[in-house]
Amino acid sequence: MSLPIVIEIAVGLIFIYLTLSLVASEIQEILSALFQWRAEHLKRSIEQLLAGNSTRAEGKERGQNRQAAKTLADRLYDSPLISNLNYEAQGRLASWLRSGLHAIGAVYRILTFSRNVFGNKTSGPSYIPAETFATSLIERLRLEEFQQVLVRSRFNQFIQTEVQLPLHNTVSELRAQVGDETLLRAEMDYFDQELAQVTADLNARRVSLEAALNQILSQLQAFETMATEVPLSDAAIAQSFLRRVRYLRNRLLSGHEQNALLTRLRPTLGDLAALLDPDSPTYAELVELAQREGGAVWGALEKLQQEVIPPELGMSLATLASRAEARVQTTGNELQQLQTELEAWFDRGMERASGVYRRNVKGVGLLIGLAIAFTLNADTFYMFQRLSTDQAIRNSIVQTAEQLEVRGIDSPEALAEDLSIDELSERIEGDLRLVGAAVGDILADYPLPIGRTEAVITAQQAAEANWPIPLIPQRLIGWLITALALSMGASFWFDLLRKVMSVRASGDPPKSSPNA
């Protein structure tokens, strides 16, 4: 067998595999949309991500951890950011079609004894950006809310115990020394009012913690200035009082002290992650604050207590929080860095989930390919035999492949759009009908490489006489080979077809000049 004929046979087989792969891809897309494989796999992957390495738990604990992950995932899917990603077609016809698909999905779950991963909903998004997931999780766990609550509580305690109380004690001692209980009363009242306003601004998030501390320093500076204008008969007492006020202000004014104060007042990411552990000191601090203040703080604590948190998620968040703290460049940017770590964590988990999905798709593609091979009687052995002995079929397919090259189609998707099933059948003059129907009038005398015509079946039965493997029909092996080929995907066969066509074109003998 000469090399040009071998290449033409290869082109024929590859083109048939490409054509059937396009059909298989369309069927797989329809099934994927019908049963929402992508959306369902995404939801299960998120549940697995939240459950973490639950193999470290034993028996009942492992089951509880997985159930908690499912519950939390359901609640995350109810968040506005994620639920808004679940786009569905609008219109009456689309609604009827969607209802029918949901009914089919419900029957499928009943027959397969599988749960509806979307809870009380019928569908979910097929893709969730990492930023959306991280933001939804932080909002669901109320980490930013609790950060503000703890900052406010610690700031109020700092104001009372380390600013107002020392200053009031200093002024009280001054009054006792000079025997005047009304001394600096107006100045102290004004100072307390200004501190109350700073606290209110911080609680309303009109100012940052750093700005609030700077305002306190400004108020201490203003109080010191007003105190110097108060006439005192004893200069030594006056100087001692001013030194104590100045010491209080300088202690806060020191850059080192201010940074340490910011670190002490603002809860770390480790503190926030520890809120998921009822036995942690941060959780005990929050409970004490809720009991003391009640109101919104108590309501937020009750919501946290009602939240179902997988233990493994708490451990994962603690690790991510520690990593984020090590990478924080600007004080006050901790939650943003934690969100960045959560996004990277989500992306890594979804990369692993994508690998699992691709393997599952391969398995489904193999089953679809086997179904197509059986339905169309696409026997690779018979196709090879017909292509190697029938020049008319080879020429027809090669000409069709050359036409595709000439038109510049550069992807299987473009081929699928450019050629519908009917158009493709017309272009190859019936030699490669996707449904395996009879040949057209021109090639009526040539059996197709695929199909269940009498001529094809007769030829296959005749080939069985020389088949060396007993009890296993040659057609079955041929179908399996075709199924494996189709599971490779249309992109694989399209790229291979272009390479083989390039080799064939480069191997053509040069045409002689008419004047030679």
Note the run of SSEs as H and E: HHHHHHHHHHHHHHHHHHHHHHH
Largest sheet: none
Helix content: over 70%
Strand fraction: under 5%
- Counting DSSP H or I runs of 4 or more residues, the number of helices is 23
Structural class: mainly alpha
* N-to-C CA distance: 31 Å
Q: Please mark out the parts with pLDDT under 50 across 5 or more consecutive residues, or reply none.
A: 419-448, 510-516
Mind telling me the C-alpha Rg? 38 Å
* Structural domain tally: 3
- How would you describe the shape? elongated
Averaging pLDDT over every residue, what do you get? Answer: 81
Strand segment count: 0
Write the layout of secondary structure elements.
Layout: H1 3-35, H2 37-51, H3 59-77, H4 80-83, H5 92-112, H6 130-141, H7 143-178, H8 185-203, H9 209-228, H10 235-253, H11 255-265, H12 269-274, H13 281-293, H14 295-306, H15 311-327, H16 334-376, H17 380-389, H18 391-407, H19 412-418, H20 421-427, H21 454-463, H22 474-487, H23 490-506
Helix pairs in contact: 1-16, 1-17, 1-18, 1-22, 1-23, 2-3, 2-16, 6-16, 7-8, 7-10, 8-9, 9-10, 13-14, 15-16, 16-22
What does this structure look like?
Helix content is about 75%, strand content about 0%. The longest helix is centred in the C-terminal third of the chain and has 43 residues, at about 335-375. It has 23 helices and no strands. The chain is mostly helical and about 525 residues long. The protein is elongated, with a radius of gyration of 38 Å. It folds into three domains: about 5-25 and about 365-505, no CATH class; about 35-140 and about 345-355, no CATH class; about 145-265, no CATH class.
